[in-house]
TrEMBL record:
Species this chain originates from: Pseudoxanthomonas winnipegensis
Protein name: 5-methyltetrahydropteroyltriglutamate--homocysteine methyltransferase
Active-site residues (renumbered): 699
Residues reported to bind L-methionine: 436-438, 489, 604
Pfam family, one: Meth_synt_1
Length: 763
């Protein structure tokens, strides 16, 4: 009998119950007991739901109040010293201090760093370790939740983050080697495994997703040492769990590890099945990840069944388990909640609950159980309707893409020539000042949007409101003396959603939330079809704003790679193809802005770097199409039109040539927090075009002084030529309050003036 097993379920709840409970607790409205009760109720509800959906083996300890990597650090007592007193006095307060910092009652602790979980949009807390690090069990969350499940009638498989991945995902604050801590960590893992064994766990799922990355010899050796050590402990059987890619050159290593089962991702990397079957010793369990845990489409069950049969032929029926490709953390909970989606589109989709149902059908079919044929046929019909649908396939899009030539992704003239024309066109001072686009989205702005959406504010009244906000913003920028203005982006909810809502080929859910970090969730658009722009999207607002002022008004767009990265994308064509379609739609928008008299246009690409593939050898292919897509957007305009781009939270060192290849006339980047260190890459590369290294950290309510900004700018000026340097904040201002913004921008303009005065003096 083939088992359906799940690797992890979304924690946030079908209606973001966990988010709301956390926020009430943080505000002091709910007690810790109330929060814990909500969490326990959610866990019970999730186990129930998974069981009903058809899963035989349910995970436990996949739940987290904030993040599973933080849970792991906490569990092994890897607490930086500064949180210890608080955590000893009040564990929950200590835990949340690590997650999000605290600033109350005389305590002022910053949060631990947060970073992206592999190539997902989930962010984990980066544990801080040091050479003298000791580990010990603090609490017993995995055991407690295993027992909690048992008491509720569910026999579960506890999930742990494996020791080597835990270390590789951590950082040391003293520059020491993380893996040198392995020997100290392993006995504590062994102790935990022993406890789980004693509690009655037959299997433990041990996640080692770093096994799909490029690993150096030291990391490989660490895996061998770790699993040899853990083999000695009295313990449950281990399912070594890998996902997000192929094992590739790590497969030999994996096959030699002393574990009883292996999970592989056959959605991202179906081609690895043969090699895995060859390498994986007979008699051990293989868990086949056949349903995509990262996207929302119904699975091609016939294809999955072929893979499953093939695998079964090698490992035998009892040793094959069926599973999603990875934990279902990255998809929304339940499609059934979407009442507004039309039936056809809905029939193509599958969220966490439905995915377990798909696995059930697969297992039943594999075992030849009666009744499996009906659902298989139904699934075939759904896939066929999607394949044939006229809302998915718009022949004009393919035709247009086919006519694109190399020249369409190249500006007419090289930067040096464009610059001369742009200087004439705009007559900007040296060190021109600008902002990144959005201005504070006040309570009022959000309220007006919500009322408009609810039908309580008429279109006309909403427009009038937005016009007034925009005008106020323009007047403010004029008054403080900014050189290149923006309209403020008041009409936008989210930088991707705003465009997706206006493009054909995008759909939106009502409750399709996915955890981004902690209590923060995003609701990614679903790109289901060929992308078409029925009409201009931003021209009206840019034109209106330009009509208010003599100064240049910068048009503001979200770039194609960012739209792609922050959406659920089609699985029936390459990402690069979808990206080119978005690029074409945006190219039309850029051209329309130019025709409407907007001479400076910014195409934001904050997500370019996060799209990088996990394996280095796939980077250049990605960068080629990503950069090309940006250039398709940007290259339809005349030489005198100035194209800006903006990127944030990025390291540029290893992709600087790709950034330069975007050939934007001006790029603004985040640098203030690193005190301009991020500029190094641009300097070493001799980046030729305009560049605005952010001088105001908009992620903090702190207002930087004029002197601080002057100092940062002098640092930048020392390594860039005067014609290159722009003066701007790090990122958009939408999360800031007006008071701080006003103050900080006035000082920023003053800082630019001082720099200009330096120059005048030198001349
Ligand atoms: N133009 C956007 C804004 O100002 C850019 C946001 C971003 O980089 N994430 O909000
Ligand atoms: Zn930004």
């Amino acid at each position: 009998m083939t088992s359906v097993t799940n690797l992890g379920f979304p924690r946030i709840g079908p209606r973001r119950e966990l988010k709301h409970a956390l926020e009430r607790y943080w505000k002091g409205e709910d007690s810790a007991d109330t929060l814990q009760a909500t969490a326990a109720a959610l866990r019970a509800q999730h186990w129930q739901l998974q069981r009903q959906a058809g899963a035989d083996v349910l995970p436990s300890n996949d739940f987290s109040l904030y993040d599973h990597v933080l849970d792991t650090a906490f569990l092994f007592d890897a607490l930086p010293q500064r949180y210890r007193a608080l955590a000893d006095a009040d564990p929950l307060a200590g835990y949340f201090a690590m997650a999000r910092g605290v600033q109350t009652g005389g305590i002022d602790l910053r949060a631990l760093e947060m970073t992206k979980w592999f190539d997902t949009n989930y962010h984990y807390i980066v544990p801080e370790l040091h050479a003298g690090q000791e580990f010990a069990l603090r609490g017993d969350k995995p055991v407690a939740q295993f027992l909690e499940a048992r008491a509720a009638g569910f026999d579960t498989r506890p999930v742990l983050l494996g020791p080597v991945s835990f270390l590789l995902l951590s950082k040391t604050t003293d520059g020491s080697d993380r893996l040198a801590l392995l020997e100290r960590l392993l006995p504590v893992y062994a102790q935990l495994l022993e406890r789980l064994h004693a509690a009655g766990a037959a299997w433990v799922q041990i996640d080692e997703p770093t096994l799909v990355l490029d690993l150096d010899e030291a990391a490989k050796a660490a895996f061998a040492r770790a699993y040899a050590f853990l083999a000695q402990a009295p313990r449950s059987r281990l399912l070594l769990t890998t996902y997000f890619g192929a094992l590739g050159d790590n497969l030999d290593l994996v096959a030699r590890l002393q574990v009883e089962g292996l999970h592989v991702d056959l959605v991202r990397a179906p081609e690895q099945l043969d090699a895995v079957l060859q390498a994986w010793p007979k008699g051990r369990v293989l868990s086949a990840g056949l349903v995509n845990g990262r996207n929302v489409w119904r699975t091609n069950l016939d294809n999955a069944l072929t893979l499953a049969r093939y695998a079964q032929g090698h490992v035998g029926a009892d040793n094959l388990w069926l599973a999603p490709s990875c934990a279902l953390l990255h998809v929304p909970v339940d499609l059934e909640q979407e009442k507004a989606l039309d039936a056809e589109l809905k029939s193509w989709l599958s969220f966490a609950r439905q995915k377990l149902g798909e696995l059930r059908v697969l297992a039943d079919a594999l075992d030849g159980r009666e009744g499996a044929e009906g659902p298989l046929a139904q699934q075939r019909a759904r896939l066929e309707s999607r394949r044939q649908s006229a809302r998915v396939h718009r022949p004009e899009v393919a035709r247009r893409l086919a006519t694109l030539s190399e020249a369409d992704s190249r500006r007419a003239s090289p930067y040096a020539q464009r610059r001369v024309l742009q200087e004439q066109a705009f007559g900007l001072p040296v060190y021109p000042t600008t902002t990144i686009g959005s201005f504070p989205q006040t309570q009022q702005v959000r309220q007006a949007r919500a009322q408009h959406k609810a039908g309580k504010l008429s279109d006309a009244d909403y427009e009038t409101f937005l016009e007034a906000e925009t005008e106020r913003c323009v007047r403010f920028q004029e008054r403080i003396g900014l050189d290149v203005l923006v309209h403020g982006e008041y009409e936008r909810n989210d930088m991707v959603e705003y465009f997706g809502e206006q493009l054909d080929g995008f759909a939106f859910t009502k409750l399709g939330w996915v955890q981004s970090y902690g209590s923060r969730c995003v609701k990614p658009p679903i790109i289901f079809g060929d992308v078409v722009r029925p009409k201009p999207m931003t021209v009206r607002w840019s034109r209106y704003a330009q009509s208010l002022t003599q100064r240049p008004m910068k048009g503001m767009l979200t770039g194609p790679v960012t739209v792609l990265q922050w959406s659920f994308v089609r699985d029936d064509q390459a990402r690069s193809e979808t990206c080119r379609q978005i690029a074409l739609a945006l190219r039309d928008e850029v051209n329309d802005l130019e025709a409407a008299g907007i001479g400076i246009i910014q195409i934001d690409e904050p997500a370019i770097r996060e799209g990088l593939p996990l394996r280095r050898d796939a980077w250049s292919d990605y960068l080629n199409w990503a950069i090309e897509a940006f250039r398709i957007c940007a290259s339809g305009v005349g030489d005198a039109t100035q194209i800006h781009t903006h990127m944030c939270y990025s390291e540029f060192n290893d992709i600087i040539d790709a950034v330069a290849a975007m050939d934007a006339d001006v790029i603004s980047i985040e640098t203030s927090r690193s005190r301009m260190e991020l500029l190094d890459a641009f300097v070493r590369f001799r980046y030729p075009n305009g560049i605005g290294p952010g001088v105001y950290d908009i992620h903090s309510p702190r207002v930087p002084s004029v002197e601080e900004m002057v100092e940062l700018l002098r640092k930048a000026r020392a390594v860039l030529s005067p014609e290159q340097l722009w003066v701007n904040p790090d990122c958009g201002l939408k999360t800031r309050g007006w008071d701080e913004t006003r103050h900080a921008l006035e000082q920023m303009v003053e800082a630019a003036r001082r720099l200009r005065a330096d120059l005048a003096q030198a001349a």
